[in-house]
Design a protein that fits this description.
heterodimer, A: about 160 residues, alpha+beta, 2 domains, three-stranded mixed β-sheet, two-stranded antiparallel ribbon, globular, B: about 160 residues, mainly beta, Immunoglobulin-like, six-stranded antiparallel β-sheet, 1 helix, 6 strands, about 15% helix, flat
Chain lengths: ~160, ~160
């Protein structure tokens, strides 16, 4: 049986679950291994689930149960993409060597298709939501934009062009 | 018999929560650091390019409509009047330390785009598979930035 939001979500749409904007117990549940899956339908019921089309013109599958989902008409804008870490401004900032050393991903190639990833700091995550947030944080730390990222999450505006 | 299980579950929950909460969660009560006024300048929601027009981006991995049973992702680096480089890696996480992976590098003048694809091994009735994409963007002036994203896909 499919669980809404966990393994049932709109195809060709990207989804975000704003557990941080919900009650604390729901955030804790989303960070709990195995039980995390039960946080997703609850988040949908509380209006914390959003979906954006992958590209302009993508249409929502009419058979999808969109009740209580927030469905956007257009793909994420550039600020939203920057926040999630999929868009970045190239920079020559000097990143703290400790941060670079600690958060950079290293890899060992085993063969053409297999690879082992490792980090200096343990980067394992036990939940889907935790893994997503960790990836975002690592990207912003390596780009030296973690402070601006936090500002953006608080709804403040900032200027990269300086 | 039941008691040890409950204790183990509480410990796992506590560790997972601590491990994930050392960094700020979106919208959570962040330390109220007063931002510099110079940084509070306008809405960048619809701006096409940040800063000096030198960006890297990684699109959403998705089921390919051209090549069936393939997951495809596009990434690009764009800089005005410069040589640009990109390396994009897509990996499918099954057993987490040995993910299937594919990496593509390219370089070009002003704009370079790469397309990376992996076969989709999802079968009906299975949970969706997590695909993780990471890109490293560079330009000839030495600027660089990583980007990345992950997506659960059924094909």
């Amino acid at each position: 049986m499919e669980i809404r939001g966990w393994d049932d979500y709109p195809r060709d749409f990207q989804t975000d679950f704003n557990f941080d904007k919900g009650p604390k117990w729901l955030l804790a549940l989303a960070h709990t291994p195995y039980l995390e899956k039960f946080a997703y339908p609850k988040a949908i019921n509380l209006g914390l689930a959003e979906a954006w089309p992958r590209a302009n013109g993508v249409i929502l599958d009419p058979t999808f149960n969109k009740e209580r989902w927030i469905i956007h008409d257009n793909p994420k804008n550039d600020l939203e993409k920057w926040i999630e870490g999929s868009l970045a401004h190239l920079h020559t900032k000097k990143i703290n060597p400790f941060v670079r050393f600690s958060f950079s991903r290293r890899s060992f190639k085993i063969n053409d298709r297999k690879i082992v990833f490792w980090h200096v700091l343990p980067r394992f995550t036990l939940t889907r939501y935790g893994a997503k947030m960790r990836m975002r944080h690592d990207i912003h730390r390596l780009n030296g934009t973690f402070r601006e990222y936090k500002q953006a999450l608080r709804g403040e505006h900032f200027d990269f062009s300086e | 018999m039941r008691r040890p299980r409950i204790i183990i579950l509480i410990i796992i929950t506590f560790i997972a929560f601590c491990a994930n909460s050392y960094a700020l969660q979106p919208g959570s009560s962040a330390p109220k650091k007063k931002a510099s006024p110079a940084l509070l300048n306008g809405n960048f929601g619809d701006k096409i390019s940040f800063g000096n027009g030198c960006d890297g981006r990684t699109d959403i991995p998705h089921e390919s409509h051209h090549v069936p049973l393939t997951v495809n992702v596009t990434a690009l680096t764009e800089c005005l009047n410069r040589e640009v480089f990109i390396t994009t890696t897509i990996s499918r996480h099954g057993w987490w330390i040995f993910p299937d992976t594919k990496s593509v590098s390219a370089q070009g003048y002003q704009k370079v785009t790469v397309n990376v694809a992996l076969p989709c091994k999802w079968k009906k009735g299975q949970p969706p598979i997590l695909y993780v994409v990471k890109s490293m963007h560079r330009d000839s002036a030495g600027a660089q930035a990583p980007t990345g994203r992950s997506e659960l896909i059924r094909c």
